[in-house]
């Protein structure tokens, strides 16, 4: 017999409150949140879905089909955004750019690019969605209602952070968050806390949904399939026995369709606790039956992940099909028609209604499965079912994705279509694999955590962001939360609590898992969430290697928080200390890596003397364990340190040392056959020659690197080499060397190609490409150059690249100053004023003395101009102090192709302004500068240049 729907939807009084919130958003155009909380089965999902289906009275209000946020499909934000875009704009009139970019994402993931770049593409995709969404609501005047259901499942997850950040950026939208109230959080609700964040709060209204009142409960029964069969007295009694709870009303209707009224309906006593409890137990007794459909429902009560027909068939393969059902296709169709089955958004996957699953696990499953053997058997069957759907087919998809661009030819549309097809298949496989991981964790704690570490590490090595994110969210449910929470009231809750107890007895496994997840969070712009997780790990029980990794990961997380970078140093120092506790030769490897990490950290902050000392220490540590017969990994680590150290020495102007170091690294890597690393060394060699202003030799080195990287089809490094070649061409031309015909035009063409490649494949090098584009184009088109430099500052800030934050800021200011002196347009002077705070913040946060020196000189120029114009707020003595200090700092340091090498050009600019002063002021300035530069600097270059002033 085909099951009948229990009842049509009965309107709720609370609908008016929700519609009032929609009207408020429509009027104010300011987004807000409506939290609808209620216990399981009270009708939250039914109400929000009915309202979304009905739409409301205003045709300018768009109701997005409610999203089940516990569905792993929507743990990836791009899937949620795709649904919203397609429902709001079927013709792609507004969301076309977003959907086009989204369709291109798979080709980036399929190429050999780094995790930072993949993460950046996802950020760009999200930004493009916000732009399209804003354009849509502004031009159409639309109000949008986005409903996220079952939000209790993300209350303790990092997905909550991602979603609330996303919500804040969408205008004219009511977000309806529906779920269970927070219990076990010591009176806190993390969802409300994230929404109320004082830095950027969202207006929140909270509504609690209860069961029906007596009259509405009777109305529910009137509207049910038994509305004409039940007497008025029976309806009154059912309303009392169920206390108006929609789930129990629906179960009662379902029960009475096939059975006589239970004795509790005839009992005239009060509907107190015992009588109501007996009634509820009776309503679930039909599921104690061993028949096919009862067994199917019980199994879905403990297998809670979404299942499709293939998984369900494996789950039920020990059961005979019921009478009247010819095959498994028909059985699946009938299962999907049952009132307790919820279909997911794609209509191919289903789950059992949460509230019914919980009631069965509370009242029936314990009797059916006293020793929990049956549920573990079901979880093992589920694991086998999900895992069987991957295997060789999954490996074939991954293999083809990894080689699809390796034809040696430029890809055509057919290749891109194939990538899109493979990506869709892989994403479905990823969801199946994470479901398999979930059931392996439930049924085998040790085996499940081993599976997580194995698959997560493989995904990290392949920069597979999608699978990492899904696996992270899956495992989050099992890890101890930041605060005590109430147990889930289903078959899984007690097992998760046991898992957490087991994890406490295996602290090394807990630490390993936690550190890997924290690394993923840091790499995906959630460093504070990473720190929160790391702080919960049992650090006191870590072995030396885990202490090293924990400290190092804390340092990396702090490096990702603007304004807090200084806090990373303590943790990198601890990592170095912990590395010393390891046995040899692992100790030397870790110590060398720790010193190299400190070298990178201090170099990024402009503390180059410290960085030099750290690289030297790294070199000495690893050099002690290399030699004939040692593993090649030792020699490669030594070559890596040499290349990093060589680059730093070149920045200092110590070209002979830099040349010796990089030539040694090149020789080692050539003998090791490390084609990629050899090409990297050629790139460093080219930079050393460029800083030394040996442009022809630099160009030859870049050409060698480009040949290697082109053979390897390594797009990120091709992008880097192109920007190095572009700036080399341009600087050589400025110095009177013509490496190619029409070098400026060719430099522009090359840097534009580099910009495109770095944006798509090497996001950490995108700020430097923008910087170099600003310098190249700014020479002839200042406004275009300023635009590139401005973007460079923004992108460098995003990836915490202190060097190019500083370099692009000062080059932006110098270019604005140059244009202002030529045009005297007020808008350029205003641009300088608008960036003063940024410059001063960069000087405070980083130690790039080149930045401080050039800013001092620029301030001197501006004050002198203002005094000559009669508009000064500072005196000529203030300008003189800036010049004295700025030139002293500049003379003491060489910064790549600037620093001491730039004294001549900077002094010429100063001389032009100095000549505008009267003779008395010139004499006073000359005497002050000679005294300062003789006693405080003793710079021969400055004292020699001083004689140019008269």
Description:
The chain has 950 residues and is mainly alpha-helical. It is built from 45 helices and eight strands. Strands 1, 2, 3, 4, 5 and 6 form a six-stranded parallel β-sheet that branches. A two-stranded antiparallel sheet has the order 7-8. Helix 18 packs antiparallel against helix 20 and helix 19 (391-403) runs antiparallel to helix 20 (413-443). The longest helix is centred in the middle third of the chain and has 31 residues, at 413-443. The radius of gyration is 34 Å and the shape is elongated. The protein starts with 14 loop residues before the first helix and ends with a helix.
In short, what is this structure?
With 950 residues, this protein is mainly α.
DSSP summary: helix tally: 45
Mean pLDDT: 87
Largest sheet descriptor: 6 strands, parallel
Strand content: under 5%
What overall form do the CA principal axes indicate?
Answer: elongated
Tell me how many strands there are: 8
- By helix and strand content, what is the structural category? mainly alpha
In the predicted model, the low-confidence regions spanning at least 5 consecutive residues are 1-5
Measured as a percent range, the helix fraction is: 55-70%
N-to-C terminal Cα separation, in Å?
A: 107 Å
Nearest-angstrom radius of gyration? Answer: 34 Å
